[in-house]
Specification:
Keywords: Membrane, Transmembrane, Transmembrane helix. The protein is of the alpha/beta class. It has helices at 2-28, 57-73, 85-93, 119-127, and strands at residues 33-35, 48-52, 77-81, 101-106, 109-114. The chain contains four helices and five strands, in the order H-E-E-H-E-H-E-E-H. A hairpin with a 2-residue loop joins strand 4 and strand 5.
């Protein structure tokens, strides 16, 4: 009996450790987001807003691109969760219905890019007026 308990405890500890390593690895692939909880009108010129979801596979891939962009530029990226009903309503007000979507404030308006972009495409989108 003592042998079974020891084996169970060892397996449990190993499982928790492996789970922690996987969790840390998956979170290191995501950029650090700031939450834009208020109206989009609070987004300042040149700031980025990312509309995405953890349940969206394309968004998970796009997170890696955003992470690379953020590491390279030290940009602040705001996040709207596409699974939150209030956020979905806010996004619809600016005609955003798909994930992933990047929104940037430009010249008193918004520039919107929907769908996956690689790092170079993202940079080109953000550089153009």
């Amino acid at each position: 009996m003592k042998h079974i308990i020891l084996r169970f405890a060892s397996i449990s500890i190993l499982s928790i450790f492996i789970g922690f390593i996987v969790y840390v690895h998956l979170n290191s692939l995501k950029p650090t987001f700031s939450i834009l909880s208020d109206n989009i009108s609070n987004l300042k010129e040149g700031e980025l807003l990312y509309y995405g979801s953890d349940s969206c596979e394309v968004c998970q891939e796009f997170n890696k691109v955003l992470k690379d962009y953020q590491d390279e530029t030290q940009s602040k990226i705001y996040y709207w969760d596409a699974t939150n009903f209030a956020t979905i309503k806010k996004a619809a007000e600016i005609k955003v219905y798909n994930t992933p979507t990047i929104i940037i404030r430009r010249n008193s308006g918004f520039k919107i890019a929907q769908g996956y972009k690689n790092l170079e495409e993202l940079k080109l989108f953000l550089e153009r007026d």
